[in-house]
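agent> call fold_tool(seq_1)
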Amino acid sequence: MKKIIIINGPNLNLLGKREPQIYGNLSFNEFFETIKAKYPQVILEHFQSNIEGELIDKLHEVGFLYYGIILNAAAYTHTSVGIGDAVAAIETAVVEVHISNTFKREDFRHHSYVAPYAKGIIVGFGLQSYELALQSFLNPL
């Protein structure tokens, strides 16, 4: 069985409460249980932290063992050279995701330190962005 992890960065623990006009009303845990049930052929895990170093540590921990990583580094996407370097250093393919269309938002959100090292990027499809990323691992072109 393929082992895939979703790694979420800062403030994503507030999904369902935080800015519902941008992020919706569903908590990530509710969504995660739905997607786990929909894809029983995958060992799907989830990790969230508001702390940059913990995200880097998790990338290092799983980055040589797992089949795929779905990474929403949230605001750290646009600020963290360290997270970009961690993605570059590991062997496991990473798909960068964002719930909102970051290109419709503030200019600083148009740059990603993760993108140069990612297998691909999915933005702007709400929580479905995670499922699209998962499908990219299960149905490679």
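agent> call fold_tool(seq_2)
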Amino acid sequence: MTLLDAPPQSSEPSPNAVDACRHIWATESAHTTSEGSLRYLRCTACASRRVELRPYGDAPAVPVTRQDIPPR
């Protein structure tokens, strides 16, 4: 099973999110994998984080984290 085989997950913030931020994601770091580019993102407004996979080709980005990771 690869990350692309995982069931789709909503890219919307979790209903348990601490805030009602409309996230503006900025890439903190990224690296390539055999499946595409793995990107570590941080919201410029609230500092929440998430991870997404951008597959090779024209496929859309796939969230890897189940929900946004709240800031510390």
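agent> summarizing second result for user.
The chain is about 0% helix and 35% strand. The beta strands are 25-32, 36-43, 49-55, 62-63.
agent> awaiting next instruction.
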